[in-house]
Amino acid sequence: MNQFTPTLRDVWKARKRIAPIVKKTPLIFSHKLSEMAQASVYLKLENMHDIGAFKVRGAANKILSLTPQEQKRGVTTFSTGNHGQAVAYVAQKLGIPAVVCISKRVPKAKVDAIRRWGAELAIVGESQDAAGEHCFHLQEEEGLTVIPPFDDPHIIAGQGTMGLEILEELPEVDLVIGGLSGGGLHAGVGLALKSNDPAIQVIGVSMEHGAVMHESLKAGRPVVMEERDTLADSLLGGIGLNNQYTFPMVRQYVDHSILIPEETIAEGMAYMLEAHRMVVEGAAAVGIGALLKRNVAKPGGHIAVIISGCNVNTDTHLRATQPYVGKF
After folding, report:
1. DSSP characters for 138-194?
2. How much is the pTM?
């Protein structure tokens, strides 16, 4: 299939293509966070998708762009969990076979969810990169089409539909914050936002250890790092030494990339539980954590924080948030 550099038009095409499968998510005002940040803070609730994560946008756009013959042969992917779940969900909706390759680090909640959507599961190695190698082996041996987790124009355009929704609900937005990993989210949302107004700021937030995109931006090229345990497990994984799309697009569209410690991620999770009665995963809480620590506050501004997903083990969430219960 011919590849292309995604444009704003491709984001609009994606919006139309995925409409039968992907629903629009709410953008809600956060009173307590707005008081603390001295700004108007809104939360983009991507945890409200059927799979509990934003990844369904890109997966739907990519799979729906395949030819009928490609769909019939089946698809495969590699993932830290949420993208795998998204591919399984879309494949089930369309009645096509899917094999999801994950590492042994993927939490049980996400493993169970992938199985629930009916995909075949292959658990390989200790990293997303190892799972990716197996995925491409399946492509060669069985003719399955790989649905990349981030570095693909259709994936990027699909994630960009989130940016269109933010602009519709909050046209005065001047700052958008979200978890930064492989870059599909920030490449797509950054494209959608800055194509409309280059003055809109986009900030990526990652955990302190294993933040591959953050370190790649510092180095000026894609780098490889060892994965380490983190509450923000969805932000783990490499970006690929041959990264074609997300790395240059993140360099173009992301204004700042910051790191926060594990305790700040836990505070973000606790805030969402106490202030909004929502259980979210660590990767979804990094933007909240950054605002709680006033790392990215913009007094008087209009801020949208992307709450990317809610797929977290119950025991992990309880352990992480318990020290902060009653704080908010």
Report:
1. HHHHH-PEE--SSSSHHHHHHHHHHHHHHHHH-TT--EEEEE-SSSHHHHHHHHHHH
2. 0.94
